[in-house]
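Supplementary notes for students who missed Thursday's class. We covered one full example, reproduced here. Read the sequence, then the structure, then the short commentary at the end.
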Amino acid sequence: MAINIAALDNQCDAVITIAAQPFVEEITLRGIQVAKEYFQDPKQMEKLGKWHGDKAE
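Structure (token representation):
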């Protein structure tokens, strides 16, 4: 997010990031797809809700 903002702010001289990944790798996209499928199971959402409450929806 900081990189996106800095790119549009002509008053920004520099941005320092740690472990920033300005691109998306195929393995990341596959992981997101697996997680989407995994959390279709209501039991998994219940487990997530235990720790994150309403934010888990």
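Commentary. The mean pLDDT is 86. The chain is about 55% helix and 0% strand. If anything here is unclear, bring it to office hours.
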